[in-house]
Amino acid sequence: MTKVKFAAGMLLAATLVVPTGTAFAVDAHGGGAHAWTPAARDSGRIAIKDGSNDGDPAKAEYYRYNSPTTKRTLWNHSGYGTKVYSGDGSKIIRFQACDDNDWAPDDCSGWKTA
User: Fold this and answer.
1) Facing residues of 27 across strands?
2) What residues have CB less than 8 Å from 71, skipping those under 6 apart?
């Protein structure tokens, strides 16, 4: 009976450690910009929210699995408090959130791995 309990406990522990297909969102904050992926429960989409009421847009810069050397940019020109979603594609593998600053360096989060 002790061996059965031990085996059952090990099986339970293994199911808690092994990753599943459920994706957890990774967030990045740069200035007033907030980016996350997966967006809309899709690992091939990224979102950017403009959280800075400064009149400048927010952007998410990102790389996809199928084109890992091509930097893409998702702009949010819709204004303070709005969210913009990318189109679907291969998995987002790396990204950063940036608050665009006209005539000055952007405030970026630094690169995050998705």
Assistant:
1) 36
2) 61, 62, 63
Q: Give CA–CA dist 85/105, Å, rounded.
A: 24
DSSP string, the chain: -HHHHHHHHHHHHHHHHS--SPPPPEEEEETTEEEEESBTTBTT--EEEE---SS--EEEEEEETTEEEEEEEEEE-S-TT-EEEPPP-SPEEEEEEEE--TTS--EE---EE-
Question: What is the model's pTM?
Answer: 0.80
- Taking only the tens place, the pLDDT of each residue in 37-96 is 999 999 999 999 999 999 999 999 999 999 999 999 999 999 999 999 999 999 999 999
Residue matched to tokens 């408090």: 81
C-beta atoms surrounding 102 within 10 Å: 9
What whole-number distance in Å separates Cα of residue 3 and Cα of residue 98? 55
Is 99 exposed, middle or buried (CB count within 10 Å of its CB: 0-12, 13-18, 19+)? buried
